[in-house]
Amino acid sequence: MRYRLQSLERYEEEIKRSRFLVLAQAIDHPNDALEFIARHAVPEATHNCWAYRIGQEYRFNDDGEPGGTAGRPILQAIDGQQCDQVVVLVIRWFGGVKLGTGGLMRAYGGTAAQCLRLAAKSPIVAQTRLHCHVPYTDADLLRSRLEAFNAKLVNEDFGAEGIEWTLSVPSTEATALPEVFINLSSGRVSFLDDDPESYVVTERG
Prior knowledge:
- The chain is an alpha+beta fold.
- Helix 2 packs parallel to helix 3 (about 100-120).
- Residues about 200-205 have low confidence and may be disordered.
- The strands form two sheets. Strands 1, 7, 8, 9, 10 and 11 form a six-stranded antiparallel sheet that branches.
- Helix content is about 30%, strand content about 40%.
């Protein structure tokens, strides 16, 4: 399972006289990540290194540190802490002691991981969006069964012969719900999409 941060997170640590400040926040779009970095980067700091991940999309930047010693370890920390939809910025003020390639990787990856480890997070739940036609005679009965599947009624359009429902349902229930609804309605309910749209939402406590 992947997790999304609930708020802006901050973590600070000194490593061999260098100061590392980590800032992390949930994002929905790559532009959110770039705006976050632009807003929080400290120009007078020695380096502003970062990484973000949104599903299969990711980017990272070493900002002048030796290649592979900053941005990629930050991304690995994101993946190691099972986080998604997140940007992590690690700001370094050089303290006069060189850390070496391995030391830099441990410092950037370690501080990013610790920030995410301590962060308040919510699980990201895979959802599927289903579209169906429901006769008026079956609507009340089927509406009463939505909660059993943790399904939500996203939209409904009323027509002459029934209602077009858009449902958001956990992907683990995306096969069971149509089967039950069709059986309960004796086949009067029809699901309109052969290829339902899948996506993810954050489960908020």
